Amino acid sequence: MRGERVVIAGGGILGLATAYRLKQRWPDCSVTLLEKEGALATHQTGRNSGVLHSGIYYRPGSLKALNCREGKRQMEAFCEAEGVPYEICGKVIVATEEAQLPMLQEIYERGRANGVGCSILEPDALRRLEPAAAGIRAIHVPETGIVDYRRVCLVLGERLAAQGVDLRVGEAIVGLRAVGREQVAATADGEFVADHFINCAGLHCDRLARMGGHPPDARIVPFRGEYFLLAPKARHLCRNLIYPVPDLEFPFLGVHFTRRIDGTIECGPNAVLAFAREGYRKTDFSLKDTLETFGYVGARRLFREHLRMGLGELHRSISKRAFVKALRRLVPGVREDQLEPATAGIRAQAVAPSGKLVDDFLITRRPGQIHVLNAPSPAATSAFNIGRTVAALVGEARS
Prior knowledge:
- The protein contains eleven helices and 23 strands.
- It has helices at residues 13-25, 63-82, 101-113, 123-129, 149-162, 205-211, 287-294, 297-305, 307-318, 320-328, 379-398, and strands at 5-9, 30-35, 51-52, 86-88, 91-95, 119-121, 137-141, 145-147, 166-169, 173-179, 182-187, 190-194, 196-199, 219-225, 228-230, 241-244, 256-259, 265-268, 272-273, 339-341, 345-351, 362-366, 369-374.
- The strands form five sheets. Strands 6-7-5-16-17-18-15-20 form an eight-stranded mixed beta sheet.
- Helix 9 crosses helix 10 (320-328).
- 49% of the residues are buried.
C-alpha cells in the first residue's frame, strides 16, 4: 500500500473511521475524503441518539454483533485517549405485558451469547433503577453508554488532517468511473484519481454504487425518525435509557427514552417513510426520491407486507397524543405538555427486492471499489471496527 491513493466518499463517522484505520495501517498511503456537505457528520452521524450500544439485540455471529462488541471497545479507547466525554450509564429493556416476555427472554439469550453483561430484573429491581418506568420484567444492560458522535467526528477530522488526510467538504461526487485499474471520482471542482474508492455515502450509497457501475441488489429506502425532548421539569422521569421490547424481525427498536451526554432526555424515534432522502421535516418532499422509492419493487412489497405497522408509525407522526401514548407504556407519568420538539433524523435502510429489510451490515467489494451499502444502528458504535474491516479489504485487494 505504500504510496497508493484512496478516495473515500462520505464525511460521517464511517468514512472518517475508515480513513483513520487506513492511516494507522499504512501511514504512507494517500487518503482523500470527499463530503458533499459543508461540514462533517451532517446527516445520520450528527442526528442519532448518541448511544454506545452493547450488542444485545443482534443475531450471534452477525456482522452487527461482532462489530458492535469490538467497535464499542475501540470507541471507548478513542474517547479516553482524545478526551471526548462519554459515560457508561446502562439501560433497561422493559416488557410491559405478558405477550412480550418470550421476546424479552430471546433478547437476553442473544445478549449472553454475544458476551454482553446483562441480567433479568423483576419489577422492584426495575423501579430501583428507573423509578418512573412501568414493567412486569426487564433486562438491565449496565455496559450501554452515551457519547456525542458529532464531537467524535470533529476530533477525528483534526487527527486525520494532522496525518495528511485531504478532507474536502462541499465536494459532491457527480461521476465515478474506472479507467484501467484506477478509479476516477468527479466533482464540480475536478477529478480525483485513486487506486481504491471506498463508498461510505450513507443515504446515497446505493446511488454511488450504481454510478460506479456496480448496482446493488438492495436499495436505500429512507425512514424519518422523529423525536421529542423532555422538558427540564420532567427529566426526573428518566435517569438513563429506557427501551421497549422490540420486534426482532425489524431493525427498529421502538420509541424509547435516552439521556444524552449533555443531560437532555430524548424521546423517540418513530420510523415513518420519508419522501426525501434528506427529508428531516414532515413537509420535505423530493419528486426524484419519492419516484425512486415507489418505483422500486422491494419498497412496494415492504409497504404491502407491513401496511398496518406503517400506518401506526404514520399515526404517531401526525398525532402527538398517539406518540405520547406509546411513551406512556414505558413511563406512565409522561404528559403531552412535557414534550418539546427535537431534531429528526433519517435512517438509510437497505431493502432487498423481496421487500425484506436488510438486517445486517452489508459491505461489498468490486475491482477497485468497496461499498458500505447498509450501515444503520449500531454503525456509529461499530465505526472503528467497520473501518478496520474495510481497511483489511483494501489490503486484500492489493495483495
